[in-house]
Design brief:
mainly alpha, ND/Mrp_TM, NADH-quinone oxidoreductase subunit M, 2 strands, transmembrane, transmembrane helix, two-stranded antiparallel sheet
């Protein structure tokens, strides 16, 4: 069942190219239909999965036996919310792109391929399998940016590829080192976690954590590895930006929680303060630089650096909290995973809304707009919900995530957590200023049309989910909390 979920989009992409003379209309409908079926399968998968700290739908087959690497996949409370987020965002992007008219068949096939790659990474329980999916996601997004981006897309795509490919090479070095230190040698994540091969090794574990940390930090991205992100987002098409922010950035933070923390618990505790510092710097820096932007899409890109910094702060704090404060540590990890989901929904919606803005005015420059709320009230309303969700307003998913992160981190890193609070204030200021410039005040451009049906149908459900999680978070927390306890038990070894 899980393999069907992972490879169905890839099979659909092959069909698009295998069928001769595919019409644009067929390509669009095929993409939306397959994405809808895929999301329905993921929802069914979630409904049937047992609530526990183990893996459901586990498959472990021989793949490369000479290096003890297998086709090992499974889902738990960490991966299940992320594959649901992935399926939902790809469906939203498929609906949003119904008006796409530039090489539609290739565009749809590339997104279907990217969906398989993303799902595969979140269910991979083998380091080589994880690495293959990690690298393929870079290749697919490179072509999305370069092929369908804006004016300076080629340069942004190359920068994105070089940065993230460098991160993947660092990961490969770390993965090989883990393989060599394990006895018996293996790339299996579950077996490596059980072995804890670098227990008591000191500097060696620190060097491996450095390699993994660089690889995952570039993908997240954190300061100072974030400079590829704003140009990639600014030049990418709206659907590409939504997937890049909503799904691909999570591969970095997911890697920290799935691989680095459980396999290298001693090293993680020893260097946890480094992650706390990197996290809080990313929070404040991302918010301040976002505040200085006049480009709406670039502003959203920098808020991603800010919001991903909260996740790094939380998982770093989980390594600093005393073993006696189990509840605080669990809150930090649970909040970090909840933030992954919340950020994906909110920022995915914001980038699609930025695409709507560009479609109406041909620019992201906020100074060129004004008074759009009068002629586009639905557009203004959804943007307001997304903006308030991003700044952590109670009743929305961002508040649930950030409340847990701050509560879990305050005892371990009080100064860093208090400084991180500034990020919320700055984020509130920048979104209120942006909303006022674009939607309120005197008009600076011709009246804009309101949201079309495809635009509204693609964006509104993402924001409805942020409200549902903000008011009824139990269904999400029930999935995340068991795996949070499991990660903390491993971290305490």
């Amino acid at each position: 069942m899980l393999s069907v979920v992972v490879f169905l989009p890839l099979a659909a992409a092959v069909v698009l190219f295998a069928v001769p003379r595919v019409s644009t209309r067929f390509a669009r409908c095929w993409w939306v239909g397959v994405s809808a079926v895929e999301f329905a399968l993921i929802v069914a998968l979630w409904g049937a999965a047992p609530v526990s700290d183990g893996y459901a739908y586990e498959v472990n087959l021989r793949w490369i036996p000479s290096v003890s690497s297998g086709y090992h996949i499974g889902v738990d409370g960490l991966s299940l919310p992320l594959i649901a987020l992935t399926g939902g965002l790809f469906l939203a992007c498929a609906v949003y792109s119904l008006r796409q008219d530039k090489r539609v068949r290739s565009f749809a096939a590339l997104f279907l391929f990217l969906e398989t790659v993303s799902l595969g990474l979140f269910v991979a329980l083998d380091l080589i399998l994880f690495f293959v999916y990690f690298d393929l996601s870079i290749v697919a997004m490179y072509f999305v940016i370069a092929g369908w981006g804006h004016r300076d897309a080629a340069r942004a795509a190359v920068k994105f590829f070089l940065y993230t490919f460098l991160g993947s090479l660092a990961l490969l070095v770390g993965f090989i080192a883990l393989y060599l230190t394990a006895s018996p040698h293996t790339f299996d994540v579950v077996e490596l976690t059980r072995q804890n091969p670098l227990a008591g090794s000191g500097w060696a574990a620190g060097l491996i954590l450095l390699a993994l940390g660089i690889g995952f930090a570039i993908k997240t991205p954190t300061v100072p590895f974030h400079t590829w992100l704003p140009p990639a987002h600014t030049e990418a098409p709206a659907a590409g930006s939504a997937i890049l922010a909503g799904v691909l950035l999570k591969m970095g933070t997911y890697g920290f929680v799935r691989i680095a923390m459980p396999i290298l618990p001693e090293a993680w505790r020893r260097y946890a303060l480094v992650f706390v510092i990197v996290g809080v710097v990313s929070v404040v820096y991302g918010a301040l630089v976002a505040l200085a932007q006049r480009d709406f899409k670039r502003m959203i890109a920098y808020t991603s650096v800010n919001h991903m910094g909260y996740i790094v702060l939380a998982i770093g704090a989980a390594g600093l909290v005393a073993d006696s404060a189990v509840e605080a540590r669990q809150l930090a990890v649970t909040g970090a995973v909840t933030q992954m989901v919340s950020h994906g929904l909110i920022t995915g919606a914001l980038f699609l809304l930025a695409g709507v803005l560009y479609e109406r005015g041909g620019t992201y420059d906020m100074d060129r707009y004004g008074g759009l709320a009068r002629t586009a009230p639905r557009f203004a309303g959804l943007t307001a919900v997304a903006a308030f969700a991003s700044l952590g307003l109670p009743g929305l998913s961002g508040f649930i995530a950030e409340f847990q992160i701050f509560t879990g981190s305050l005892g371990a890193a009080p100064v860093a957590t208090i400084v991180a609070f500034l990020g919320i204030l700055i984020t509130a200021a920048l979104f209120l200023r942006a909303f006022q410039k674009v939607f309120l005040g005197p008009s600076q451009a011709a009246p804009a049309a309101d949201l079309t049906v495809p635009e509204a149908v693609s964006i509104a459900p993402l924001l409805v989910l942020t409200v549902v999680i903000g008011i009824f978070p139990r269904f999400l927390l029930d999935a995340i909390e068991p795996v949070s306890r499991s990660v903390l038990n491993l971290l305490a070894r």
